[in-house]
Amino acid sequence: MTLRILTPGLGAVSTTLMAGVMLARRGLANPIGSVTEYGTIDGRPLKDELVSLDDITFGAWDPYKGSALDVAKRSSVLSAEHLAEISDELAAIEARPAVFDQSWVEALEDVDNLVAPGSWMDQAEALMADINAFRANGERLVMVWCASTEAYRPAGPAHMNLNDFERALKEGDPSIAPSQVYAYAALRSGVPYANGAPNVSVEIPALVELAEREGVPIAGKDFKTGQTLIKTMIAPGLRSRMLGIRGWFSTNILGNLDGLVLDHPDNFRSKEVTKLGVLDELLRPDELPDLYGNLDHAVRINYYPPRGDDKEGWDNIDLFGWLNYPMQLKIDFLCRDSILAAPVVLDLAKLLDLASTSGRGGVQEWLGFYFKSPMEDQDGHIEHALFEQEAQLYSAIRSMLGS
């Protein structure tokens, strides 16, 4: 059975994913970074238990017209040699007209590929028509948000239950974000949905209610790829050795479209919220106030066009140890944004498909391994420590595979 991965957003991340899958199944590159391709479960290759790369296809929406090949060339993530090998496949993937409102992403201008005007519900129905077309040949579907970070706006009255949310959709309520329209359309169509950005999307009570009612898996939010990935490795280790932390300063320079969008304070605020929330949960200062009760934590993102997709994440950590003597730890992670994110999208798609075929609906907290700000479990707990998350991930997979 074919699995079609649908991405709101045909940009650097989604086209890097598409190209990588196409290259890997031709034996021209390796899908490094993908747990579902390289992991094992009880000694067996995990990839043998899940949908094969040979059976994956794609579909996408974007507010700009163009093909995946056009976008991949413009994004300058992959080499011309790699793109030449799969140019026909990429050229065949065209962006469908998108649901978009510039008030949520002010940096995106001169858009030319939008669904017909109407209420949010009208636009959701247009997305549902696309979804039905994408599954015309009986494919299973998964949707992963790979579009730009929307402005930070917390959930309000329209988001608290499904009845009020659907009323707000019909009324064109401005508190509803485009990403929420995509999530609604996916869930109404029985399509699992993951939120790869830090903005408020499928996590609202109304959409959690819909996911549970329809038995559709959901997960989010904000792909854990670079600096926060490192933070969730280092912080638990420092805590396990009972080393104190007085301050943690994190800064990033990034020059791609994501960097441009995050240069706006409203959009950066969405990212800041997910990044800042990690340390408190990891270090639990209420339990160890002598070590972490006076911690200053700051996060910065700076748009710097010359870097393109090659992001630099720099951390300065002010530590203290025996007898309160100070120390410092400095980390400079020179990474590639889309190269880190692409295997995360692949894993999420394959694992949400596994959850769906296993009859698991609602919040999939075991997928927190992949997110900066994981959705809460039924007890309201959020786990951030990477290796604890890894254990939860494999436990859930083992359960679904009957191992």
SSE inventory with pairings:
Blueprint lengths: L2 E6 L3 H14 L9 H4 L1 E2 L2 E2 L10 E6 L6 H8 L4 H6 L1 H5 L28 H15 L5 E6 L16 H10 L6 H11 L4 E3 L9 H10 L2 E4 L6 H14 L3 E11 L2 H6 L2 H19 L5 H4 L3 E8 L6 E11 L5 E11 H21 L4 E2 L22 H16 L2
Parallel strand pairs: 1-4, 1-5, 5-6, 6-7, 7-12, 8-9
Antiparallel strand pairs: 2-3, 8-10, 10-11
Helix pairs in contact: 1-3, 1-14, 6-8, 7-9, 8-9, 10-12
Question: Would you give an account of this structure?
Answer:
The protein is of the alpha/beta class and 403 residues long. The chain has two domains: 284 residues, NAD(P)-binding Rossmann-like Domain (Rossmann fold, 3-Layer(aba) Sandwich); 110 residues, Dihydrodipicolinate Reductase, domain 2. 40% of the residues lie in helices and 18% in strands. It has 15 helices and twelve strands. Strands 4-1-5-6-7-12 form a six-stranded parallel β-sheet, sandwiched between helices. A hairpin with a 2-residue loop joins strand 2 and strand 3. Helix 8 runs parallel beside helix 9 and helix 10 runs parallel beside helix 12. The mean pLDDT is 95.
CA distance, first residue to last residue: 22 Å
Whole-number tally of structural domains = 2
- SS element count, helices: 15
Report the CATH topology name of the largest domain: Rossmann fold
Shape, principal axes of CA atoms: globular
What is the averaged pLDDT score? 95
| CATH-defined architecture of the largest domain | 3-Layer(aba) Sandwich
Backbone structural class: alpha/beta
Taking pLDDT < 50 over at least 5 consecutive residues as the criterion, the unreliable ranges are none
Give the helix proportion (percent range).
Answer: 40-55%
> If you compute it from the alpha carbons, what radius of gyration comes out, rounded to the nearest whole angstrom?
21 Å
CATH superfamily of the largest domain: NAD(P)-binding Rossmann-like Domain
